[in-house]
Write a structure and sequence with these properties.
The complex is a heterodimer of chains A (about 325) and B (about 300).
Chain A lengths: L11 E5 L20 H32 L19 H8 L4 H31 L5 H9 L6 H12 L4 H5 L18 H26 L3 H9 L4 H12 L1 H17 L2 H7 L8 H11 L4 H30 L2
Chain B lengths: L1 H44 L2 H7 L11 H9 L2 H30 L4 H16 L2 H14 L16 H25 L4 H8 L4 H12 L1 H16 L3 H6 L8 H11 L4 H21 L1 H10 L5
Helix pairs in contact in B: 1-13, 3-13, 4-7, 4-10, 5-7, 7-10, 8-9, 10-14, 12-13
């Protein structure tokens, strides 16, 4: 995944790795009742162990995050009735915690930037390169290169571009002594600088996914459109885009999940402070790295969970529809 | 006939013009895309003194590999590569083993159960890891392990913990991909094996698994890259800086080379080397892995 990654298709990668999966062709119901008793026990163990792991380390913690968010537990000792504080963590976030709204707005900005700019560029590249042009492979290789790099490495590569004596300022004729722009240090600029760096990687990812989808489009559709005198642009929006609906869902899911997972890049640049606050970073800062306010970090985690349930549900419904009977 | 060719000519010319514009656009974008990497490489090849004296935007007076050599030694990179190796190899192998076994078992289970489990695994893989990190952190600190497995008796700050969380988080995706893949294999194979009296395990090992080689190669390449590139899990679940895998270690190394961006550039590029090798040598598998999830087979 888990890219997306997932899974970002796998998913960034996901990347990280999220992985998004579309199921295979519909299958017929068939049962193998010829299984022996021993076979059945073996199957149960094979499936049982991963299910237990999934519950202990993924679904259990998800539920625990929700429960923690109603307490003021600080990470040691037992949790008693006195620790239960109701919605206090949430009201604190909404009304007093100065980092919460900036972080949420940065996450939403990240999401919007990916949805409206980075992913469409990736789709655009895919559509251009899907045609029979010389060197298509060569261009594809260049655009998708950043996809193999970790976001930590991407962060350092772009720091060299954005540094006050780095490439961008130098190319603009700005020097350290006079009027250099501190792209990563200026709290109103740095989120945009980071979004450009993040897109450098995201565009290639989307391009690869979309190209794979375009390859599976029935070529006769294109021919029919051409015979009807449709222009390239008309063909894409009226014919190709609609038949690509399954891939479009994957692209949306990958894009949203990747934006919600954003962490590494902001963290490597300045630990997610001074204009680069993100929900993901506030969770770890509050509950693990800087303080042990488990309740507050968990409340932020729940908000992140609620937002991510939107793409996850969208994706699962699709999977059910294509896999289900 | 003549009218036809006459009408066709300007059209052809227009197409050619369009092609030129298209290539011009693509070449420009390619340069833009390669530039940050080329710049990092150039920075890494220049000594810091040269950059300071002439500014970073200047014709380099000296180019050498000193930053790479010094960076490798000062950062102790060989050691961090080893840390990564300890995590990545078992994590990828165990993930693939579990995923292929589960995928195989699921093809033998009633479809409703099958669907439910697939949804559970897939959804788990889609969650942002930050949603579960706080409880995972405490579970890793609470669970008691025999000291033979973990020298501090915990999953926290241990290679085994990092391997475990990768396996758990990545297996969902692999199970989904492999179970879809296995479903495209002809059903007669299973039946033939049954008729021949092959045991369940034998059917898996000698018939199904070999047929899944392409999917396993693609997933293996992809998972290697994902886990190698992981920054988040090891940053939070591996406390001892010197035990961190190389990608997470970059966080501290960045501080170490704060005053020498040129060496830092060299270190970052060296950290990227294994993934660049994947890009060059295993590109086909990597792309197939990325797209396996989003398209059929």
């Amino acid at each position: 995944m888990p890219d997306p990654q997932v899974l970002s298709l796998a998913p960034a990668p996901a990347p990280t790795g999220a992985g998004v999966v579309v199921s295979g062709p519909p299958k017929k119901k068939r049962r193998y009742s010829i299984l022996t008793r021993r076979d059945k026990i073996v199957l149960l163990i094979i499936v049982g162990i991963p299910v237990v792991l999934d519950i202990v380390f993924i679904w259990g913690p998800t539920v625990a995050s929700i429960l923690f968010s109603f307490t003021n537990w600080q990470g040691y000792g037992g949790i008693t009735a006195q620790n239960v504080v109701g919605l206090q963590n949430y009201t604190f976030l909404f009304t007093q915690y100065t980092l919460f709204w900036p972080a949420l707005s940065h996450n939403l900005l990240w999401l919007a930037f990916f949805v409206f700019i980075a992913s469409p560029i990736g789709i655009f590249f895919a559509v251009l390169l899907d045609r029979e042009i010389r060197g298509s492979r060569f261009y594809q290789n260049i655009f998708y290169f950043p996809v193999v790099l970790s976001l930590a490495v991407v962060g350092i590569i772009w720091e060299l571009q954005y540094a006050p004596d780095g490439f961008i300022d130098s190319a603009l004729g700005l020097t350290k002594q006079t009027n250099a722009i501190d792209w990563l240090g200026n709290p109103s600029l740095n989120i945009w600088a980071v979004l450009v760096a993040a897109s450098w990687r995201h565009v290639g990812y989307i391009m690869v996914l979309y190209l794979a989808g375009l390859k599976s489009v029935d070529p006769t559709l294109r021919e029919a459109a051409a015979i009807d005198g449709a222009s390239d642009i008309q063909t894409f929006f009226r014919v190709i885009f609609p038949v690509m609906a399954p891939i479009n869902v994957v692209i949306v899911v990958v894009t949203v999940i990747e934006s919600l997972r954003a962490f590494d890049l902001a963290y490597i640049i300045n630990q997610g402070t001074n204009g680069l606050e993100l929900l993901s970073i506030l969770i770890t800062n509050n509950s693990i790295s800087e303080a042990s306010l488990v309740g507050r970090g968990s409340a932020i985690a729940v908000i992140l969970l609620v937002i991510s349930l939107v793409p996850i549900t969208l994706y699962l419904t699709r999977v059910m529809r294509s896999t289900g009977e | 006939m003549t009218a036809n060719t006459m009408a066709g000519r300007p059209n052809k010319r227009r197409i050619r013009k369009g092609r030129v514009a298209l290539h011009a656009f693509l070449i420009t974008m390619s340069i833009v895309w390669l530039w940050p990497l080329a710049w990092a490489f150039l920075t890494a090849l220049r000594p810091l003194s040269d950059t300071i004296k002439n500014g970073s935007w200047s014709w380099p007076t000296t180019l050498n590999l000193n930053n790479f050599i010094n960076g490798f030694q000062q950062a102790n990179l060989g050691y961090y590569y080893l840390n990564t190796l300890i995590v990545v190899v078992p994590a990828v192998l165990i993930t693939l083993l579990i995923a292929s076994l589960v995928a195989f078992a699921l093809t033998r289970v009633r479809s409703r159960v099958n669907l439910f489990l697939l949804l559970m695994f897939t959804a788990g893989n889609l969650l942002p890891p930050q949603v579960i990190i706080v409880p995972v952190y405490y579970i890793f600190n609470w669970l008691q392990l025999p000291t033979a497995i973990a020298d501090n008796g915990r999953l926290y700050d241990q290679y085994i913990g990092i391997i475990l969380i990768h396996v758990v988080f990545q297996m969902g995706f692999c199970i989904f991909v492999l179970s879809n893949y296995m479903r495209t294999l002809p059903k007669e194979l299973n039946e033939a094996a049954l008729v021949d009296g092959a045991s369940l395990f034998r059917t898996f090992r000698s018939i199904i698994l070999p047929l899944c080689t392409p999917a396993l190669a693609a997933l293996g390449t992809l998972e290697f890259t994902f886990i190698y590139n992981d920054f988040f899990w090891a940053l939070l679940l591996m406390k001892t800086g010197s035990k961190r895998p190389i990608t997470s270690a970059l966080n501290n190394l960045q501080g170490q080379f704060f005053t020498d961006q040129n060496v830092l550039a060299a270190v970052a590029l060296m950290v990227a080397v294994p993934t660049i090798i994947v890009y060059i040598a295993l590109q086909r598998h990597f792309i197939r892995g990325l797209t396996l999830g989003s398209t059929k087979g």
